[in-house]
Specification:
single chain, 6 helices
Length: 192
């Protein structure tokens, strides 16, 4: 009792299928967007960082309004939930307003917070790697990772603004390269 398998229905979609065409467009548009954003970050790191911060500020304002609406209108929510949502809404709105009032300072503060968070995280990752050495399949690599992670975290904490600029530009370059790869994939997918 053998069944024959139709190879056109199993595996990759045909080169002219709507799914493959949609995937090509999605990859191409996503790649083009990544190239544009990456180039903007690399060419104008300060302006692009301020723009990103302003987008986050707008998000905070909108999110804050929604938190307050939820606090006032949600059915079945207790007093603690209403107070918590209202306070969160007020904090988000205040953060958004403050960011819009002084975009440059807000960008520096936001970048510093992100870099400090990354630095502390890397230090804790290194410490965690040291504490789990007996579980590591390769102790040498685990020690190497732990030392590099701790040193990188300390470097970020010692100069968060410089580290923030370097990470931001690296992010832009990475987006640009990933975008190019994605566009190439969009043109070559289905040609195998």
């Amino acid at each position: 009792m053998s069944e024959s398998v139709d190879n056109t229905t199993v595996g990759a979609p045909a080169a002219d299928s709507p799914v493959l065409k949609s995937l090509k467009w999605l990859l191409g548009l996503g790649g083009a967007l990544a190239i544009i954003i990456g180039a903007l970050i690399f060419l104008w790191p300060t302006k692009s960082a301020v723009t990103f911060t302003m987008i986050l500020a707008a998000y905070a304002l909108i999110g804050g309004v929604f938190y307050i609406i939820i606090a006032l209108t949600a059915k079945g929510m207790g007093a603690g939930g209403r107070i918590g949502h209202a306070l969160a809404g007020l904090v988000f709105i205040a953060a958004g307003i403050i960011a819009f009032m002084n975009p440059a300072s807000s960008t520096v503060i936001f970048a510093s917070i992100v870099v400090i968070f990354i630095g502390v995280s890397w230090i804790f990752e290194g410490i965690a790697a040291f504490t789990t050495l007996k579980l590591a399949p390769s102790k040498g690599w685990a020690v190497f990772f732990a030392i590099i992670s701790i040193l990188a975290g300390i470097a970020l904490l010692l100069s968060p603004l410089v580290a923030g600029v370097v990470l931001w530009i690296w992010f832009g370059i990475s987006l640009f390269v990933i975008g190019i790869v994605q566009v190439v994939r969009a043109f070559t997918i289905g040609k195998d």
